[in-house]
Amino acid sequence: MNDQYVYTKKRSEYGRQCMFSDDGPKVETILPVKAHFEDYILKNPVHRGTQIGSVLAEHEANTVRAEYDQHGMNHTEGGWPRDVNPADEEQTMRYRKKVEKDESYHPSILQLSHAMEHTILQNNAVNIYESYFDEYDQVSIAERATARTVNVYRDPSSVKRPVTHLSWSPDGGARLAVTHCNLEFQRAPPDLTTFSYIWEVVVTLPALGTREIRRQVHQVSVQGLPLEPREPGLATVLGPPRGQTGHWMQVSEAYGSTNLILKSVVTKAVQENPNKPQLVLKPLVPLVCLEYNPKDPNCLVSGMYSGQVAFWDVRRGSQPVEMSALEPSHRDPVHNVIWINSKSGTEFFSASTDGQVKWWDTRKMFEPSETLILDMVKIGEEQSLSRAMGASSLEYEPTIPTRFMAGTECGNVLSCNRKGKTPPEKIAAKYSAHLGPVYALQRNPSFVKNFLSVGDWTARIWNEDCKESSIMWTSNHNTPLTDGAWSTTRFSVFYVTRMDGTLDAWDILHQQREAILSVKVCDDPLQCLRVHDEGQLVAVGNSNGTTYLVEFSESLVSSNRNDRPLLTAVSDTTIMMAMLERESRREKILEARTREIRLKQRTRADKAAVPQTEDKPRREESIVTEIEKSAANEFLALIEKVR
After folding, report:
1. Which of 52, 175, 181, 261 has the smallest number of CB atoms closer than 10 Å to its CB?
2. What is the DSSP secondary-structure string of 11-43?
3. What are 250-284's pLDDT values in tens digits?
């Protein structure tokens, strides 16, 4: 249906053209008519609304969280009925003969043997151990650095407490120990729990109950069926006959020998359960730190809020096995405990904000074996606990068993030697690191002379030989830093946590002005972090009692072949100095120049009459400038050569 009509009209039919002109305003007055008031009806106001958009409704549903539990079973001897005792040889022999007389037994075994023979012939045709690409160099693929949160572990208690320490178990990082403690003095609620937790992190565990029988044989019998060994390269798996229970048998042979390996494989799958911890530690006092024994995954030591230390064994339950007395312990909360690389594997030492470092033995927990007061005094003076600097962090390298480092609350880093005879020998050096407490302190896993310190708003990399200043440092962040650690696999990467809930990953080989990757983990402040031994997982804990498991990409985990020559200095003159050695040399030059200026000022004050030539300082400054320029040119030449 068309409702339009078009017509035409001539211009002449419009009439004469209108001519407009400007005119002033005119005020018109219309007076009210009294007769109209009689027809006016007064009504109440009426409100009416109009909505053009569609009506939407929001609904929320909070489902009940499913509680999971896990139970393990050690299946060492399977396939037997309930009334047959596997330990009784006569019963098992009678039952085995009974099964072998069954009519379906031999057809089932013959049916399995055909698949096994096909696999053997397949393996004999191809060398399964041959490597085709040994002569080629591995090419590193440029991958963008990424990260993702793998799992979240929340504090099961009703009143949430901050995470103060994290520790991975030494058996491949299968478990994660998390301590919760409120360190705010006299602000903890009365119903605050003291529990800490051990979480299961690994998804699958190695085979359990594996038995190996190595024999030089020419004939093997499996389930009563003789199997003739073929050519080298045999590798197959046999199962029980159909309709019967039993465990699988794995028959394998090393390539090029007749040494057969018969394995009874029993696997146990452990599913990660972030809702329920594997073990709940129930101390009388909240734990501030908890550390696994690197030689025994069942043993742990902890530092408590009361200043005591405790020894734990997960096989003994949720209570501590040994605990130090209150009198010989620390006076303040113990912030760090570290195991010592000793022959017995039972020694550890602890540090607290009371300014003391104590050495302990789990076999004699009634008193410390040695005590060191962090008070730097001159020769002949006595140390005083009132002048001691409180320890906020601790560092120990097993390859240097007699030396350790302590970060203090006043921002200093102390390099200590346990075997020193006098106090000045025990506290050998002091580094003025930060404006506030040193929250993290760790040596580089590959270059132990360089260590990382985290405090105030920066993270700094130091060299032991440069005490005046750090060789590298980050720019000041907008929020304070709380913790940091080196990567365990890629020695140029370190991680830093911030108060705004961000986890930064720095790679000093790629860029030094900003982090290579920043991950916003949560909105709450991050308190601590711990890197997994494999380097790909990083556990971080926040102030709300939640622990996040963050997985990083391969580019931040594995090291390239050219990374080590770039980061270290090589003695060959054809390969120029690299980053750390160059920065260390620069700091040494600046330190020498600073000492020289101070010495000259002191000399001028003492001997003002001694003439000084004006060209000598200029000549020395030119020498320093030439050395710095040559070091920079050598480093740039090395970069161009690697490219």
Report:
1. 52
2. GGGG-SPP------------PPPGGGGGG----
3. 343 333 333 333 333 333 334 467 788 999 999 99
What pTM did the predictor assign?
Answer: 0.64
> Rounded CA gap, 559 and 144, in Å?
14
Answer whether residue 636 is part of any domain: yes
Which structural domain, as residue segments, surrounds residue 612? 565-642
Distance CA 233, CA 258 (A): 9
Between CA 201 and CA 163 the distance in angstroms is 17
Q: What is the C-alpha separation between 156 and 547, in angstroms, rounded?
A: 12
Question: Counting runs of H as helices and runs of E as strands, what totals does the chain give?
Answer: 6, 34
Q: Which two tokens stand for residue 365?
A: 């927990």
Q: For 587-642, what is each residue's pLDDT tens digit? A: 777 777 777 777 777 777 777 655 554 455 565 566 667 777 877 888 778 777 76
Residue 81 placed within a domain: no
Closest CA to 408 of 428, 391, 395: 391
> Three-state SS for 283?
coil
For residue 583, tell me if it sits in a domain. Answer: yes
Domain boundary among 219, 244, 268: 268
Last residue of a domain, which of 222, 238, 268? Answer: 268
Q: If we measure between CA atoms, which residue out of 271, 268, 362 comes closest to residue 309?
A: 362
Q: What would you report as the CA-atom Rg of the chain, rounded to the nearest whole angstrom?
A: 38
Kindly state whether residue 226 falls inside one of the protein's structural domains.
yes
Number of domains in the chain: 2
Q: What is the pLDDT of residues 429-467, one digit of tens each?
A: 888 889 889 999 999 888 888 899 999 899 999 888 888
Buried b (16+ CB within 10 A) or exposed e, 248-268: ebbbebeeeeeebebbbebee
